[in-house]
Amino acid sequence: MLTRIDLRGSSRDPRELLPRAQLDVSVAVEKIRPLVEAVREHGFAAIRDATERFDGIRPERLRVPAEAVKEAEGRLDPQVRAALTESIDRARRVHADQRRTDHTTRVVPGGSVTERWVPVGRVGLYVPGGLAMYPSTVVMNVVPAQAAGVDSLVVASPPQADNGGLPDDRVLAACALLGVDEVYAVGGAQAIAMLGYGSATDAAGAEPRCAPVDMITGPGNIWVTAAKRLLRGTVGIDAEAGPTEIAVLADDTADPAHVAADLISQAEHDPLAASVLVTPSEDLVEAVERELARQVPATRHTERVTTALTGRQSGAVLVDDLDAGLRVVDAYAAEHLEVQTRDAREWALRVRNAGAIFVGPYAPVSLGDYCAGSNHVLPTGGCARHSSGLSVQSFLRGIHLVEYDEAALREVAPHVQTLAAVEDLPAHGEAVRIRFAGPARRTEDPA
């Protein structure tokens, strides 16, 4: 089922050979540009037209009534409530420790720089609702934003025809459990445009307006990703999320049933999901293949899983040894990386590039999706080489507070003036010099 890629004895860059899902976001950007521009110019009318076109629903208003959010919580299955409550509690414990504190550095006597950490003012959180519903994504977006101290949070999620044109009940219930009551039944690129530009939320303008946000976070399909790219600069974004992916670095101690189950668990997200096994053990590959042949037909989303596992983005990569495997997974920079080897923690600590690392046989990716306490909004498509997953820091901005008294500025003034002259910016130097010139010098005619 998995395409085999044999890198044993190869000196080529693994990035040239590793499987990866291909998405041309730039093409999608041009396709959705007219829709985004229409939302900017026409607001509610354009959003309603797009919602009718893509979701089959023509809404009279976009904002979900606060009582509907509360009622969804009341209908929540007790087991689902318990699971979401536990997920929220564990995420809050982890994210509370990520909050940065202001720090002042005394550079010289009378001169200091304080780095203040200030939360973003208003954040739009997108929760997808296509092949599956994701109340867990509400948790993963809202918890770090709240821990950062964001004052205003708004959630947008696609309307569901089987829920009276409101977002999925479990998504609404998760919002209620987290204390978020500004929720909009809007999905896709039109939701991103609404969040970025703001909009009236009904035809008459009687409903409260959706004010524009400062930042948009949350995963979505290629159209959501394209809209986020188009609005970057107008708002901040967390990342351009691509199809989900898992890499498993394993040796002959790994349980093939576990490995196969974990590869399947990511493949059920999307036909473009990537599942990659990296191992020096050919016997493990054979055993995992046998497990896949047994487990895939028994899973609920067999067709979707099969498409993902047999696609060009998935495969089994054979390497000479675990050192070579480490180089491969660092080159791949997976969204999720499992390490199922002897001394798994030691190997995990050597990994440089991954969105999140799951160590040993009892830390599957699905634990991180829901209840590890970690965040599941992670960089995809190799972006873990330079980017991090969503965290409290995502919602904070560092602002430097510079405080120098007269003596401290006087002491460094010659250096400032020298560097200003080197860069041919004489007014920079003059802005310092004039502070130490007498009143007569300041008022006399330079000519």
Describe the structure.
With about 450 residues, the protein is α/β, with parallel strands linked by helices. The protein folds into three domains: about 5-20 and about 240-375, Rossmann fold (3-Layer(aba) Sandwich); about 25-110 and about 120-240, Rossmann fold, CATH 3.40.50; about 405-445, no CATH class. About 45% of the residues lie in helices and about 15% in strands. It contains 17 helices and 14 strands. The strands form three sheets. Strands 1-11-10-9-12-13 form a six-stranded parallel beta sheet, sandwiched between helices. Helix 8 (about 220-230) links the parallel strand 7 and strand 8. The longest helix is centred in the first third of the chain and has 19 residues, at about 80-95. The mean pLDDT is about 95.
Question: Largest sheet at a glance?
Answer: 6 strands, parallel
Radius of gyration: 26 Å
* First-last Cα distance: 83 Å
Number of helices: 17
- Major sheet strand order: 1-11-10-9-12-13
The coarse silhouette is: globular
Tell me the strand percentage band: 15-25%
Please describe the structure with a list of short key phrases separated by commas or semicolons.
447 residues, alpha/beta, Rossmann fold, 6-stranded parallel beta sheet, 5-stranded parallel beta sheet, 17 helices
In short:
With 447 residues, the chain is of the alpha/beta class.
Helix-strand blueprint:
Layout: E1 4-6, H1 25-42, H2 44-55, H3 66-74, H4 78-96, E2 103-108, E3 111-119, E4 122-126, H5 135-148, E5 152-157, H6 169-177, E6 183-185, H7 188-197, E7 215-217, H8 222-231, E8 236-237, E9 245-250, H9 256-267, E10 274-279, H10 282-295, H11 302-310, E11 315-318, H12 322-332, E12 336-340, H13 344-350, E13 356-359, H14 365-370, E14 396-404, H15 406-422, H16 426-433, H17 439-443
Parallel strand pairs: 1-11, 4-5, 4-7, 5-6, 7-8, 9-10, 9-12, 10-11, 12-13
Antiparallel strand pairs: 2-3, 3-14
Helix pairs in contact: 1-2, 1-7, 1-8, 2-7, 3-6, 4-5, 5-6, 7-8, 9-10, 9-11, 15-16
